[in-house]
Amino acid sequence: MAKVSVYNIEGSQVGEIELNDSVFGVEVNEHLLHMAVVAQLAAKRQGTQSAKTRSEVSGGGKKPWRQKGTGHARQGSTRAPQWTGGGVVFAPKPRVYTIKLNKKERRLALKSALTSRVNENKLIVLDSLNMEEVKTKKFKAVMDNLKVSKALVVMAEKNENVILSARNIPSVKTALTNTINVYDILKYDTVVVTKDAVNAIQEVYA
User: Fold this and answer.
1) CA angle 154, 156, 159 (to 5 degrees)
2) What gap in Å lies between CA 117 and CA 19, rounded to an integer?
3) Contact 54, 80 (CB under 8 A)
4) Is 0.85 topped by the overall pTM?
5) Successive 10-residue mean pLDDT values, the chain, 206 residues
6) DSSP calls for 116-136
7) Distance of CA 73 to the CA centre of its chain
8) How far apart are CA 31 and CA 87, in angstroms?
């Protein structure tokens, strides 16, 4: 089992914690990581884009001019794509972009993402993270003490003071153990996770 240091909010090491290899020590599957990120980004797409084809735009029922003898190229309708106000060639239509991953693939992708952060020494474990009041300045000080800037902060239980204090920092995102995902883990430079959250993640995914 891998051991990582446990820090307090002052940035001082206060102990160590053993990480379960079945969650934080698996073989990193880069293909699954790619699939998980693509699937998550695809799921965010609305899929409501729509334009009209030549059969859907109004007008154009009458042939603009006779077939021969005018000197113009032959034309059958003013709603053809080459005309102003005509239809769109291969017009986009509403569609579903969802890409499906099965449960085992999703779990392994998340484990791979967590393992990659451990391997790169970008996983910081906090003994606890509690704030008595909503204060962005104090939360920023905690991040500075840990020497991190762009971070995903993972907690075991919802703490409104922490969430609201971090909300105005663009480079920081807070999450609960049941809302973490591959994209966020890979997007942020460092994953800051509380000791309780580590135990909760291991209980679910071990």
Assistant:
1) 85
2) 12
3) yes
4) no
5) 86 90 92 96 95 92 93 94 95 94 94 94 91 91 92 93 93 93 94 93 88
6) HHHHTT-EEEES----SS--H
7) 52
8) 40
